[in-house]
Amino acid sequence: MNPVNLPLPVVRRTPAQVDAEALQRDLRDRVDGEVRFDTGTRAAYSTDASNYRQVPIGVVIPRTVEAAEEAVAVCREHDAPLLSRGGGTSLAGECCNTAVVLDWSKYCNRLVSVDAERRRCVVEPGIVLDDLNRQLAEYGLQFGPRPATHPNCTIGGMIGNNSCGSTAQAYGKVVDNLHRLQVLTYDGSRMWVDRTESGELDRLMSGEGRRAELYRGMAALRDRYAGLVRERFPEIPRRVSGYNLDSLLPEHGFDVAGLLTGSESTLVTVLRAELELVPVPAHRSLVVLGYRDICEAADHVPAVLEHKPPALEGLDRQLVHYQRRKDLNPEALAKLPDGRAYLMVQFHGDTREQVREKTMALIDAATGAVGHTWYDDEQHMHELWLVRESGLGATAHVPGESDTWEGWEDSAVPVERLGDYLRDLRRMYEEFGYGQPSVYGHFGHGCVHTRIPFDLESEEGVARMRAFVEKAADLVAAYGGSLSGEHGDGQARGELLVRMFGPELIEGFERLKGLFDPGDRMNPGKVVRPYRLDENLRLGAQYLPWEPDTAFAYPHDDGKFSRAAARCVGVGKCRSLEGGVMCPSYRATREEEHSTRGRARLLFEMVRNDSPVSSDWRSREVHDALDLCLACKGCKTDCPVNVDMATYKAEFLHHHYAGRVRPRAHYSMGWLPAAARVAALAPRTVNALTSLPWVARVAKALGGIAPERDIPLFAEQRFTDWWRERGGPRGDGHRGEVVVWPDTFTDHFHPAIGKAAVEVLEAAGFRVKVPQEVVCCGLTWISTGQLGVAKRVLEHTVDVLREDLRRGTPVVGLEPSCTAVFRADAPELLPKDPDIERLREQTRTLAELLVERAEDWDPPGVDARALVQRHCHQYAVMGFDADRELLERAGVTADVLDEGCCGLAGDFGFEKGHYDVSMACAEAGLLPAVREADEATLVLADGFSCRTQVEQAGTGRRPLHLAEVLAAALRETTPEPDRPSSPGPRALLRPAAVAGLAVAAPALTLMLRKRLQGRG
Q1: Do residues 160 and 97 touch, judged by C-beta distance below 8 A?
Q2: What are all long-range contacts of 244-253, with beta carbons under 8 Å and residues at least 24 apart?
Q3: Distance between CA atoms of 374 and 377, rounded to whole angstroms?
Q4: Is 345 helix (H, G, I), strand (E, B) or coil?
Q5: Which residues make Cβ contacts (< 8 Å) with residue 838, sequence separation at least 6?
């Protein structure tokens, strides 16, 4: 084809002047989906996992692929830019733009069909990789590429980025695993594209219409640039930068699906994909080889590759050191062999013997290694892979270190030159004053990941960052490598592509863009005709965040709320659908704003100086996003950078309602400890009253409680009253004294748990004490953001416990959420009080105390199976290792659920408007597991919320506390929960009780308020 027939290069247009109101109206009228142009949604989608930020025009969440097609049509009529988004975890800025964002992940996530015989399946773009592979497991098949974000990345996003991951060593990039794509151009042409034989290509080019025009243009581009592509495209497995013009070459079968893969939503919108699948390996092993340093490890990669491993990863000592500093993956780190750098090598096989043979052959040949270890069981391999997959999170926000950033996190070079490249890269780090950042990555393909301590908040720092990446780009080009090995170009590398490909091929990319998107409306400013790499920065030299006074100390963020709000790096683990706790509200709603990341984005927008979100504590957008936060603290542990949204929510509510009337639930449940003391004057009467339907309805309406909920029953005798009647401690107490903490839930609702704990502790040889004064941890005031009251409550608690604390007496918590207050919240609310620090250090769960201080005590034999629901706060703060050990010692075969939060989460599930989300969380895993358990299986839940959720869900089961199980074994009886029961209407025939309650309640409530408010 004559050069004059080549497509014209795209011309960078000025930003579109879109009538957002009219666009929103037309989208709502015509699109079957959710159309959101509110400031909160726009703020939540303003960035991805990169250094960049662009507030979108609006967000469309289509319910069907056809609805998305209609949304594109509406955008075209309004000349509005468009961006397709999957999991939003891109690291180069390709998932944020001043455009209409199509979010596929909520609804368009179907596995459309499976052809097991041909090993293919058709999917919609919003399906999450791990979810897809779970559904394919019954066929013994999987989609091969597996990025580190596999729990939350979508197939559409993987296609947009041409993702790879560790398994690319065996299966290649996404482009190598596609059969065909159904795509839509901005001008409305919809078609399936795949490899095209010469006869079919001739037929397509000879036709009429837009499709024929596209094929003629692509053929012309192939003819014009084939020589340059063969000359200048690096011959390495991880060339992800640039458009895939090589897919049009004859040796690749004029593969249009391959061409469009990795185009980052700049050419077409992907509607569906037919994927090529691979068998799930029958057996696997993982070898870890230790080396003296990371460059030496890289030097040995070619020798390891001779053994043809399906995966070969590298990581340096810095990554391991950072994980130890952040207490990430401690069990796995302990399994690493000798060395200061490591290669992780995986093998597959049809039999275990075959895998072991490959493993031993590598170990015998690895003469340069200073240590090795290997495993072939799934648990240990999973643990070790987490060390590698935690790389991004582990290298961000390391305590005591400068913040690190993307920008040069994804280069790839020929594997035989990897060691030399790393040496040159380390010299560059030193030259630019960046020290020695961690390096790790897919070493079997020469792909290197790193995060660098760029200064992105000053003009000088941004200029130095630009100088570094320009020099690094020249270095990679000199090595015959690729600027991106899997993360894509976006804005971070688009400007640098000319250094890798030369101006002629850049013109070819621009012509391809001009062919498919001549109006430059598909994700403009990314890959070609790009924004500068140092504009649209999320921080930047003009970043001057608001620094408000706070109630919490934020010791890990230099005492600044702005740094806490900027902690999220966007990796999106909070959008995973299984495993861990984080994030229950996202799993229930599939809403970005109701994920940890979405909330963090809104808090970040709240403190920055040029945001659509109100820049103060009165922000309605932030309030609405935090409303469905269960304050489960799962993110405190599950988030790779330890975002603590429960704390941020409490802080926000504290200021948001300062000097204002609060929601009714803040009074009824925030002041629950005070209300419980009132109810203790006549618990039988209170229970009888709340059992009357009309009384319960009124009480719940006045208290802002969900009408679907039952009001919990108060015990007729509190734990503390029982203790006083008992007359104090018993037993020899040879192991020393302990304080059993009488939390509100144990004391007023389930005192049998406190009694059981006393029985167990005395049997183990401890002398038990129980505080004689009214005490509380302040939990309910913390969770409702009444932090001034919470501080005064904690100060009173420390006054009561001071002598015991200074003697070093352990404090045993039975309710996990209250125990977690002492271990985590209290020190951040009162950081300068040494007795609060003593309280943190000396507080233990029942299991922790028995494991740590009664190692030689043989717990009574239980010999039973148990289904165990860990309380989220215990999971996040104290951990469950001691409980697991104690259960094992007691002969309990424990199935510890990994199904996330129970959904009740203290006051959350009781609050009006939260019931549906609360139950959706429970139905995601906990309740089905309880229903499936046979009657002989014990159901254990130490948390009051967890027990209540199971009881009120109609499962017919009443969970036990660990203390009750051990106490029953001591008595050689069957564990049975002793819980309050409704006395029925007859209790109301005691008028004296009712009259006494009516007289005492107002006076006692007022007394308690004055006492609490008058302290401090």
Answers
A1: no
A2: 244/162, 244/175, 245/221, 245/505, 245/508, 245/509, 245/512, 247/175, 248/218, 248/219, 248/221, 248/222, 249/222, 252/195, 253/195, 253/196, 253/197
A3: 10
A4: strand
A5: 805, 806
Q: What is the pLDDT of residue 986?
A: 72
d(C-alpha 60, C-alpha 156), whole Å:
16
SS3 863: coil
Instruction: Look at residue 911 in the predicted model and tell me its pLDDT.
Output: 97
Q: Which amino acid is at 131?
A: D
Strands 283-291 and 447-450 come out as unpaired
Consecutive H or E run containing 441: strand 439-441
Structure tokens belonging to residue 808: 């070093």
Q: What is the dihedral of CA 497, 499, 505, 506, to 10 degrees?
A: 50
Predicted pLDDT of residue 1014: 42
Type of residue found at 39: T
Residue for token digits 């002041």? 671
> Shortest CA distance to 569 belongs to which of 166, 91, 46?
91
CA distance 259 to 194: 9
The distance of Cα 960 from the centroid of its chain, to the nearest Å, equals 30
Q: What is the DSSP letter of 976?
A: -
- The closest alpha carbon to 178, from 148, 219, 144, 128, belongs to 144
The number of residues in the chain equals 1016
User: Which residue type is seen at 22?
Assistant: A
- Nearest by Cα to 340 from 319, 311, 312, 367: 319
Q: Helices marked H in 233-311 — which ranges?
A: 256-260, 294-299, 301-305
Residues 6+ apart with CB under 8 A from 150: 129, 130, 165
Segments of the chain with pLDDT less than 50: 1-4, 992-993, 995-1008, 1010-1016
List C-alpha distances in Å: 527 to 441, 509, 722.
23, 9, 71
Percent helix, strand and coil across the chain, each to the nearest 5: 45, 15, 40
Name the 3-class secondary structure at 767: strand
* Gap between the Cα atoms of 16 and 499, Å rounded: 30
Full-model pTM: 0.94
pLDDT of residue 321: 93
pLDDT at 991: 53
- Distance (Å, rounded) from C-alpha 617 to C-alpha 651? 9
Give me the phi and psi of 331, to 5 degrees please.
-65, -40
DSSP string, 181-211: EEEE-TTS-EEEE----HHHHHHHHTS-HHH
**Cβ proximity of 130 and 150 under 8 Å:** yes
* pLDDT on residue 990: 63
Residues 589 and 628: beta-carbon distance below 8 Å: yes
Distance CA 355, CA 284 (A): 6
> Are residues 275 and 112 in contact, defined by beta-carbon separation less than 8 angstroms?
no
Q: Strands 283-291, 371-375: parallel, antiparallel or unpaired by DSSP?
A: antiparallel
CB 828 within 8 A of CB 552: yes
Torsion sign (Cα): 482, 485, 488, 490: negative
Judge if the upstream peptide bond of residue 583 is cis by omega within 30 degrees of 0: yes
Q: Strands (DSSP E) along 819-937, which ranges?
A: 843-845, 864-868, 892-896
Give CA–CA dist 364/352, Å, rounded. 18
Q: Exposure of 344 by Cβ count < 10 A (0-12 exposed, 13-18 middle, 19+ buried)?
A: buried
For 498-535, b where at least 16 C-beta lie within 10 A, e where not — what string? bbbbeeebbbbbbbbbbbbbebbbbbbbbbbbbbebbe
Nearest alpha carbon to residue 939 among 918, 965, 906:
965
CA dihedral of 611, 405, 565, 539, whole degrees rounded to 10: -30
How far is 873 from 820, CA to CA, in rounded Å?
6
